[in-house]
């Protein structure tokens, strides 16, 4: 890969595992130093840091619950002291708490909403002024096909991801003249811990209704993110790139 991101620092929320891990490593392959954020899995985050260090880039693991504003502010300040100004933000941290709507508790509703939406609000709010000052920045939000077409048992998750897409388009308009692009990558079903808990018969149906005929790989989502982060994508803002094997077009 061309080292298009040399000299940049990226923060990828929820990059200890799954899609975030693949994004963090691929951004480092492109030349970026990386802040590896995680919630509770320190060992997995340290492993990602090791992979990135092996590539000759700098990386640090930072614990922070992205739904907590103070924790985000502390993480960003500590990370910037060590690695320098962050100009690429990937809002990736996410969870599911699936229940059909009538059985969904207020806690399950809120937990999903605050992780995805407050998470993006907290990190973007803290980092955007730096990006504007530097006249260069990238905000990339990981949304989901579920926010576009809905899914049984996921009203909380669909609302969070739909909201993140609306956030993407609105913020893109606000900062377009400041050198900052804001885009979303919307995965279909990807092989990670999140989909490992989905029953086998449901995954079989997913494969049948996906034109490409399989689940996606975290690296296939990461490739779209790295393109959007690159200088080549400077004229792309407010868009949603679907990485879903054709399941929704
Ligand atoms: P995953 O394998 O379950 O990994 C989730 C990551 O998010 C972990 O690194 C976890 O940290 C972190 N995390 C969770 N809550 C957090 C919080 N409050 N603060 C900070 N970090 C937090 O999930 P994934 O499948 O890679 O999903 C990544 C993103 O893609 C999510 O936004 C998800 O909604 C979206 N997505 C996934 C799929 C799919 O099929 N997998 C499809 C569409 C969209 P710990 O390791 O410390 O727990």
Q: What do you see in this structure?
A:
The protein has nine helices and seven strands; from the N terminus they run E-H-E-H-E-H-E-H-E-H-H-E-H-H-H-E. The chain has a seven-stranded parallel beta sheet with strand order 3-2-1-4-5-6-7, with helices on both faces. 48% of the residues lie in helices and 15% in strands. Strand 4, helix 4 and strand 5 (137-142) form a beta-alpha-beta unit. The protein has helices at 18-29, 42-54, 69-83, 106-134, 146-149, 155-175, 193-196, 200-208, 218-229, and strands spanning 9-12, 33-38, 59-63, 88-91, 137-142, 180-187, 240-243. It has 249 residues and is α/β, with parallel strands linked by helices. The structure holds NADP nicotinamide-adenine-dinucleotide phosphate (NAP). The site of NADP nicotinamide-adenine-dinucleotide phosphate has 31 residues, from helix 1, strand 2 and helix 7.
Features:
alpha/beta, binds NADP nicotinamide-adenine-dinucleotide phosphate, seven-stranded parallel sheet, globular, Rossmann fold, 249 residues
Provide the spatial order of strands within the biggest beta sheet.
3-2-1-4-5-6-7
Average per-residue pLDDT, rounded, comes to 97
The end-to-end distance, rounded to whole angstroms, is 28 Å
Question: Which percent range fits the helix content?
Answer: 40-55%
Give the C-alpha Rg.
17 Å
How much β-strand is present in the residues?
Answer: 5-15%
